[in-house]
Amino acid sequence: MQLFVGYWYWQYVAFLILFFSLSYxxxxxxxxxxxxxxxxxxxxxxxxxCIFYWKSLTFIPISPVTILSLLVGFAIPVIxxxxxxxxxxxxxxxxxxxxxxxRLKRIPAVIHALLSTxxxxxxxxxxDEINLGAIDSPIHVxxxxxxxxxxxxxxxxxxxxxxxxxxxxFCLTVRFSGYNDGDRxxxxxxxxxxxxxxxxxxxxxxxxxxxxxxxxEIQMWKAKYYANKPITPQLxxxxxxxxxxxxxxxxxxxxxVDGRIFRNELSDLEYLLKTV
Length: 276
Description:
Blueprint: H1 2-29, H2 34-52, H3 64-105, H4 108-116, E1 131-132, E2 139-145, H5 150-165, E3 170-176, H6 184-200, H7 202-215, H8 218-225, H9 235-246, E4 254-257, E5 260-261, H10 269-273
Parallel strand pairs: 2-3
Antiparallel strand pairs: 1-3, 2-4, 4-5
């Protein structure tokens, strides 16, 4: 009987919790949680059973270990939620911020506005340099790349794919960085790629550059494209190096759009191409 009386007191406590939970949701939050309603329903069921069917209920003594297990079982989710909830809310906030940021910066008008704030460089385009695509295309993109730079290879791969995806929408001029800086291997590669373009055309050039980016093995590359014969120095390589130094282009990759440095992520350039 003492156990039942104790259990009955716990029903009073449960009733108070139910009253507080429902009133808080309805009047404070002004939104009802379906999961909370399920918990309320279970507690109400216990109260009804205790009131009307208490004589037929079998009460099992509760040991201290069981009570401790119940407390630990409730405490662990509460502690985890106390630490996880701030991280979860911060993650949602960052996702909203990122969504709004990307939604703004990927608007072509915004990209054009940011691009127009950049100074316009004298590009000194030459008819004999590496121009991929129609020279009279609506957009002229120039990329300055280093042949030893992995991000440069990634940028070239992306732009070369766009040449196929968006034919006729932009012309891509490729200029190599670091010529005549004392690195003989780099000079040979630049001269070799420039000569391949001038003699064999854009398709052969793209294939040769892709092979170099994939393997980056100079002897293998020379054996495939030059049969290990000497590579002739190209005047265009010297002219590009002079243009780079005179305009203080010191980093690679550097991408120009119509003579202005494109400082956005390169992937954003596709949003301009889609609106041409």
